[in-house]
Design a protein that fits this description.
mainly beta; Immunoglobulin-like; eight-stranded antiparallel sheet; 4 helices; 12% helix
């Protein structure tokens, strides 16, 4: 809880400790999500307000039993400095100044729940660490099957949104009371990510996908998977990977690294092995022996081409995918699963 009134020395020391901890967390985040290097692309990406897309997929969840949306820590970029100053160390906060909010809306625009964030600017990123709910925690609505929108606003003006669908299954756990189980559908189903550190072709080529085991009882099970990178023009398998993944009845992120096709299983495929030849490619993923999805992408001029809402041209800014790595010097590529 935030305290009002006079600042004490102990309070300032508490802020200093908190800042140090946030800095440490940011450093770890920079290693995992925002790697940096002295090597940069020719021009930085335009800085447009948005919410880091990968963190949205990681930290927007729904209660399996109570159907309430829960938001974890999110990261934003390029937010404007509030024009109304705040007395809090958080430039955006629920108690004074301009408000940074997340709205859950029905498809018809009806607002169901409003989350008002504490957000702090740290080394170029805005950390949305926690929030208050307008009307109190009991005001968080349980959702039912249907289409919804997660909308981020500053001073009432939307700058980013994530459409999603809630689906239901009847509980089939004989050791739990009868009821309904709830699931999120949307970008998790269709998007995957390609990345290589510092955009250096000598770095390992990574594929990231979000997976869930949609069933009516709580479980954790391991399933075998295979993933291949295929050059679509001639069907050549460029790289492959296999192993075991853990699935749960909620979305979990899986990071896969590839190995040379018919080569050393202890070696990792470098990005240059994919970028060497222009043309169409696809990542083909199978789970438990069954095809799960095909994710096509194109290499042109030895560079992966952006697609979908990651392309700013023709995309409404509130729908654009934010992928802001190392101050815009680097990028990853969001690719979509074929229907």
């Amino acid at each position: 809880m935030e305290q009002n009134g006079y600042w004490t020395l102990r309070h300032w020391r508490s802020i200093s400790v908190r800042r140090s901890r946030l800095t440490a967390r940011l450093f770890l985040l920079s290693i995992l999500l925002f790697p940096s290097s002295t090597r940069a692309q020719e021009a930085p990406l335009e800085c447009t307000p948005g919410i880091n897309f990968a963190k949205l997929l990681d930290n927007v969840t729904i209660g399996y039993v109570d159907a309430k949306v829960r938001l974890g820590t999110l990261y934003a970029v390029c937010l404007p400095v509030p024009t109304t100053p705040s007395d809090s160390p958080y430039p955006y906060n629920p108690d004074d100044g301009e408000k940074l909010t997340t709205l859950i809306k029905r498809a018809d625009g009806t607002v169901l729940t409003t989350y008002v964030w504490y957000a702090e600017h740290i080394s170029g990123l805005w950390e949305l660490s926690r929030y208050k709910v307008l009307g109190g925690d009991t005001a968080v609505k349980s959702l039912t099957a249907g289409d919804y929108l997660l909308e981020f606003t500053i001073a009432g003006k939307p700058f980013s949104r994530l459409p999603f669908t809630v689906t239901e299954l009847p509980s089939d756990d004989p050791y739990q009371p009868p009821g309904t189980r709830y699931f999120l559908e949307g970008a998790w189903n269709s998007y995957a990510n390609l990345f290589y550190q510092r955009n250096d072709p000598q770095s390992s080529f990574r594929f990231t996908v979000w997976l869930q085991d949609k069933q009516g009882k709580e479980s954790k099970r391991s399933v075998p998977y295979t993933a291949t990178i295929v050059r679509t023009g001639d069907g050549t398998v460029v790289a492959q990977d296999e192993g075991t993944l853990r699935l749960e009845p909620r979305w979990l992120k899986a990071d896969l690294l590839f190995h040379p096709a018919n080569g050393d299983k202890n070696a990792y495929t470098k990005a240059e092995e994919v970028l060497r030849e222009d043309g169409g490619y696809s990542v083909r993923l199978s789970l438990d022996g069954k095809p799960y999805g095909t994710y096509p992408f194109t290499v042109k001029d030895h560079t992966i081409q952006m697609q979908g809402h990651q392309r700013r041209e023709g995309t409404d800014p509130v729908d654009a995918i934010t992928d802001y790595i190392s101050g815009g010097r680097y990028r990853s590529w969001w690719i979509t699963k074929t229907p």
